[in-house]
Automatic annotation (TrEMBL):
<feature type="binding site" description="in other chain">
    <location>
        <begin position="400"/>
        <end position="408"/>
    </location>
    <ligand>
        <name>5-phospho-alpha-D-ribose 1-diphosphate</name>
    </ligand>
</feature>
<dbReference type="GO" id="GO:0004588">
    <property type="term" value="F:orotate phosphoribosyltransferase activity"/>
</dbReference>
<dbReference type="InterPro" id="IPR023031">
    <property type="entry name" value="OPRT"/>
</dbReference>
<comment type="function">
    <text>Catalyzes the transfer of a ribosyl phosphate group from 5-phosphoribose 1-diphosphate to orotate, leading to the formation of orotidine monophosphate (OMP).</text>
</comment>
<feature type="binding site">
    <location>
        <position position="378"/>
    </location>
    <ligand>
        <name>5-phospho-alpha-D-ribose 1-diphosphate</name>
    </ligand>
</feature>
<dbReference type="GO" id="GO:0044205">
    <property type="term" value="P:'de novo' UMP biosynthetic process"/>
</dbReference>
<keyword id="KW-0460">Magnesium</keyword>
<dbReference type="InterPro" id="IPR011995">
    <property type="entry name" value="OMPdecase_type-2"/>
</dbReference>
<feature type="binding site">
    <location>
        <position position="380"/>
    </location>
    <ligand>
        <name>5-phospho-alpha-D-ribose 1-diphosphate</name>
    </ligand>
</feature>
<keyword id="KW-0665">Pyrimidine biosynthesis</keyword>
<feature type="binding site">
    <location>
        <position position="374"/>
    </location>
    <ligand>
        <name>5-phospho-alpha-D-ribose 1-diphosphate</name>
    </ligand>
</feature>
<comment type="pathway">
    <text>Pyrimidine metabolism; UMP biosynthesis via de novo pathway; UMP from orotate: step 1/2.</text>
</comment>
<keyword id="KW-0808">Transferase</keyword>
<comment type="similarity">
    <text>Belongs to the purine/pyrimidine phosphoribosyltransferase family. PyrE subfamily.</text>
</comment>
<dbReference type="InterPro" id="IPR013785">
    <property type="entry name" value="Aldolase_TIM"/>
</dbReference>
<dbReference type="GO" id="GO:0004590">
    <property type="term" value="F:orotidine-5'-phosphate decarboxylase activity"/>
</dbReference>
<feature type="binding site" description="in other chain">
    <location>
        <position position="375"/>
    </location>
    <ligand>
        <name>5-phospho-alpha-D-ribose 1-diphosphate</name>
    </ligand>
</feature>
Length: 479
């Protein structure tokens, strides 16, 4: 189960948005655990915290720095602590990792060896630093957007109130990963800041900062940070509560307080003109997760777009972007592979330029040689029309991104046929429908597609990624 599903399952089973920081901070160690052996005292305290809270929280968040600071015994304590967390409860390792050249190796350690479900990262080194963590499809990252220490303001609020750096971090990091894989850590109890982040990231999980029980602005934080469904916000159990001998009761009472507010919040929101997604798991399209990820990374756009034919469409598909998101690219290749594995061919041909990376990925995945017809033939050099080696008479499967009129893919296929190659099958990711596959059939090809445009639009509408107006514009364009 991926992090997002594991987290949501725990939220609903335990009816809780609360998470607990599992921090072996010697300064916070309750007196009753203060023995000569500090590590043993910390271990017993952390075990007590887990036992008291496991049924009332949705996640645990060990802070790596506290374990590191204790040296080798601290790292051993981390491994023991991770092992004592029930496997069904997600673990978010608070590492605030930000070192570029150790990203891949660190991601492997935390996700593969330590089996944590998510990690916190700082954004300063950008997507290059985050991408190695996102190649683990079942894991997630939380990007630190904002903190509340006074010295941070000069950087995080730069250059002005209207467009502070922390909001730019939110906007930019939304391009790095899907809402299921990338959440935001908002290290402030300033409700206004939380509200401004929620307004530009309604779809993201926000992890709020650790608070002190007596701070008293819980309701403002909830009002600012909850999403329209009354969730999407992870609230830490206050640090001072963790020292209490009555931890279980105190956590349950905080949970009740939060849930009461959530019920009122959802009730109030439902009286406003807010459209809420209404889907059940049974209705889930088999490629729903992939469709959402493609939408979230900007491969599927809605608006008015002029096509090569001059026609205006209410959407535009730009699958070229997948090459910058390896985890999405990998899933796209797998979806094509499902179709190609049932076909018979000697070589794979990609249509330039958009489908060359896909054809390359499929060639490597299926151990099958690749060729491609050139878009324009050079006036110098070999003047080859087709790049790569082949033997006339071989069968080639043609791979392209989207079929609109079918013109570009059939032009490419004709070049291959002129060189003596046989083409039976054309496989695309998206079929624009409206008879384009019939056009392929009329020209002697069998068209296959991973998805049709209406499957994509309907899925996006069902989960609330597009609105009534966008759905209507699409439906009208079909006639
Ligand atoms: O949303 C779109 C629409 C078109 N493209 C590009 O056009 C061709 C397909 O158009 P045909 O009319 O079938 O020739 C496709 O290969 C893309 O390059 C697009 O990317 N997105």
């Amino acid at each position: 189960m991926n992090f997002f599903d594991k987290l949501n399952t725990k939220i609903s089973q335990n009816q809780s948005l609360l998470f607990v920081g599992l921090d072996p901070n010697p300064e916070m160690l309750p007196e009753r655990y203060q023995s000569l052996d500090i590590i043993a005292g910390l271990e017993n305290w952390l075990k007590f915290i887990i036992a008291e809270t496991a049924d009332f929280v949705c996640a645990y968040k060990p802070t790596f720095g506290f374990y590191e600071a204790l040296g080798v015994p601290g790292l051993e304590l981390l491994i023991k602590t991770l092992a004592s967390i029930p496997t069904h409860i997600p673990i978010i390792l608070d590492a605030k990792h930000s070192d570029l050249n150790t990203s891949s190796i660190f991601a492997n350690t935390v996700f593969t060896k330590w089996q944590v479900d998510a990690i916190t990262l700082t954004p300063y080194t950008g997507q290059d630093h985050v991408a190695p963590f996102l190649v683990y499809p079942d894991k997630a990252v939380f990007i630190l957007c904002c903190t509340s220490n006074p010295g941070a303001a000069i950087l995080q609020k730069y250059p002005n109130q209207k467009s502070p750096l922390y909001l730019q971090v939110v906007q930019e990091s939304k391009n790095w990963g899907t809402p299921e894989q990338l959440g935001l850590e908002v290290g402030t109890t300033n409700a206004e800041i939380l509200k401004s982040i929620r307004s530009i990231a309604p779809e993201r999980i926000i992890m709020a900062r650790s608070i002190w029980a007596e701070d008293g602005n819980l309701k403002q934080i909830l009002a600012a940070g909850l999403n329209a469904n009354g969730d999407g916000l992870l609230i830490p159990v206050p640090q001072d509560m963790l020292g209490s001998e009555n931890l279980s009761e105190e956590v349950q009472s905080l949970r009740t307080e939060i849930n009461q507010f959530r019920s009122e919040f959802i009730h109030d929101a439902s009286t406003c003109d807010v459209w809420l997604p209404d889907i059940s798991v049974q209705d889930k399209h088999p490629h729903q997760d992939l469709i959402l990820q493609l939408f979230d990374i900007g491969c599927i756009m809605f608006g008015e777009f002029i096509q090569a034919s001059g026609a205006t469409f209410p959407y535009y598909i730009d699958l070229r972007k997948i090459i910058s998101n390896p985890q999405v690219f990998n899933q796209v290749i797998s979806a094509y592979e499902e179709i190609l594995k049932n076909l018979t061919f000697d070589r794979i041909a990609g249509i330039p330029y958009g489908s060359l990376p896909t054809a390359t990925g499929l060639s490597l995945r299926l151990h099958c040689p690749m060729i491609f017809p050139r878009k324009e033939v050079k006036a110098h050099g070999t003047r080859r029309v087709i790049e790569g080696n082949f033997h006339p008479g071989e069968t080639v499967v043609v791979v392209d991104d989207i079929l609109i009129s079918g013109k570009s893919v059939m032009e490419g296929a004709e070049k291959l046929k002129s060189a003596g190659l046989k083409i039976n099958d054309i496989v695309v990711f998206i079929d624009h429908e409206q008879g384009v596959k019939d056009r392929l059939t009329e020209n002697g090809y069998c068209g296959h597609s991973v998805l049709s445009i209406s499957e994509i639009v309907n899925t996006l509408y069902e989960v609330g990624r597009i609105n009534d107006e966008q759905l209507l514009a699409f439906r009208e364009s079909e006639y």
